[in-house]
Amino acid sequence: MKAVGLAALGWLVPGGAYLPMRRYGHFAVAAILVSVTFAAGLALQGAIAWPQAGELQHLDTFTAWVFQAAALLKLCAGGPFVLAGLFTGAHSFPDGRLHEYGTTLLMLAGLFNLLAVSAALELRKAER
Q1: For 37-70, what is each residue's pLDDT tens digit?
Q2: Are 19 and 83 in contact, with CB atoms under 8 Å apart?
Q3: What is the spatial distance between Cα 21 and Cα 106, in angstroms, rounded to a whole number?
Q4: pTM of the full predicted structure?
Q5: Number of domains in the chain
């Protein structure tokens, strides 16, 4: 499988980039880690929506950029992000009492998935 296809599979299915290489243990660890972290973030009312212009209006430029980068990082969670957007609706970032912890967990899920895809691509390169 080509690197682009492997990356797309890894984005869509957490840890899925390990499946074509028959690394089922790696897949299980990555899938569980990303899924549980993402589910915990949703349970704590984490925001999955892109911050709107009105929400960023009174923030300085750096803080607004951080919020936008965080939204991009949550998108890296892939399949769980898409499913959450379809079934839970998009929450903006200031909703809920525990939203900061939830949003942080959602960002970590995206980061974990990004790291899993990167590690799988490195393993593919090393196996050649």
Answers
A1: 999 998 888 878 777 888 788 888 898 888 888 8
A2: no
A3: 27
A4: 0.83
A5: 1
Any residues with CB less than 8 A from the CB of 82 and at least 6 apart, and which? none
Distance CA 69, CA 89 (A): 20
Tokens 């899925």, located at residue? 16
- Check if the beta carbon of residue 15 is closer than 8 Å to that of residue 27: yes
Per the CB < 8 A criterion, the answer to whether 44 and 97 are in contact is: no
DSSP-assigned states of every residue in 43-108: HTT---SPPPHHHHTTS-HHHHHHHHHHHHHHHTT-HHHHHHHHHT-PPPTT-SSSHHHHHHHHHH
Residue type, 1: M
Q: What is the pLDDT of residues 80-101, one digit of tens each?
A: 998 888 887 655 555 556 778 8
Residue ranges making up the domain that contains 37 = 3-127
